[in-house]
Structure formats: structure tokens, C-alpha cells
Specification:
alpha/beta; five-stranded parallel sheet; Rossmann fold
Length: 174
């Protein structure tokens, strides 16, 4: 970013120069996108995890930082509790791919818990085998940013991740 202070009198000490610097910083942030998005996958199906890993690894902008198989572990991961307390080993994700039908706590229960948290930059995408309108409606009402139906079709999975990338880019460019 160009240092606007050099072009202003008195090394940019006035209120006007501060406003210009703030505007320049905001302008640069609007055009900056994250290079890599960290993903937490929450799904109890090993088959679904296999296919997700395979397609996610093809996109250099995505990295899986955690995989858990139930809602209790998703909550523990996000809150940095128990075995997930080391943020160096278990970094906070940019997005969570969340299944709905899981043991212990369901995806719906995780969404309900998230409503009481302040994870403003976390993007939650429900990735479920259910295409029931009531599941979609409930997930979105509980705060999911998007709802996608699981598929084993590789082309559909690539499109799903392209949609996810666009969603994340939009959210992180704000």
C-alpha cells in the first residue's frame, strides 16, 4: 500500500491525513482476499469424509484444520476446550462444513449453540444428506450461511467447493 503520509504536509499529523490513511487502509482491505481458508469438517460418515477430503485437497486455497464426528466435538473444537485447547495444533476455522444427523449432538444443536457465541467470521455451511424443505429452512433460520445437499458426484462436489470459495471471498472482502 502506498504511504499517503509522505504526500501530506507535516508528516500527516492532521485529522484530514488520518481520514485519508483510514480510507486507504479500507480500500486495500476491500480488495484483499484470504489466500487460504481453514475448514473444520463435522461429519460422522467416513465415506463422506473420504470424498470431501479428496475434493478439498484439489483446491489450494482450502486446508482442513480439523475433522470431528459429532456435535459435542464440534463445540469443543470451536470453543478450544479439552483436546482442542492448543490453537497451534487446532486453529480456529474460517468455515465449518456441518452435517445435521450425527450422534451425541446433532448439527441443529450445534447451530443453536452457535447462536449464543460471537464467532462473527465463522462461515457455517450445512452439508447434509437431507433435502427436506423443513431441514433446510430450520438450518438457515438457526444461522447457517448456506445449505448444500451431499453428493458423491465429483463434478457436483467441485461446484459445491467453488460456491463455498465464492461465499468465503465475499464475506472476507467486507
Amino acid at each position: 500500500m502506498r504511504d499517503l503520509r509522505l504526500s501530506l504536509p507535516a508528516q500527516g499529523t492532521g485529522i484530514f491525513s488520518g481520514i485519508l490513511l483510514l480510507m486507504a487502509d479500507l480500500s486495500e482491505m476491500e480488495h484483499r482476499l484470504k489466500d487460504i481458508y481453514r475448514i473444520l469438517v463435522v461429519d460422522d460418515s467416513q465415506d463422506d469424509l473420504f470424498f470431501l477430503r479428496k475434493v478439498i485437497r484439489r483446491n489450494p486455497r482450502f486446508i482442513i484444520v480439523g475433522e470431528v464426528c459429532n456435535g459435542d466435538d464440534a463445540i469443543a473444537y470451536l470453543s478450544g476446550q479439552g483436546v482442542f485447547s492448543d490453537r497451534g495444533q487446532f486453529p480456529f476455522p474460517d468455515t465449518m462444513l456441518l452435517d445435521l444427523k450425527m450422534p451425541r449432538k446433532s448439527g441443529f444443536e450445534v447451530l443453536e449453540w452457535l447462536q449464543e457465541q460471537s464467532f462473527d467470521r465463522l462461515t457455517v455451511v450445512v452439508l447434509s444428506g437431507s433435502n427436506l424443505p423443513e431441514d433446510i429452512s430450520k438450518a438457515l433460520k438457526l444461522g447457517a450461511d448456506a445449505y448444500k445437499t451431499k453428493t458423491n458426484d465429483e463434478k457436483e462436489q467441485v461446484l459445491l467447493l467453488r460456491d463455498l470459495e465464492e461465499l468465503l471471498d465475499r464475506r472476507h472482502s467486507l
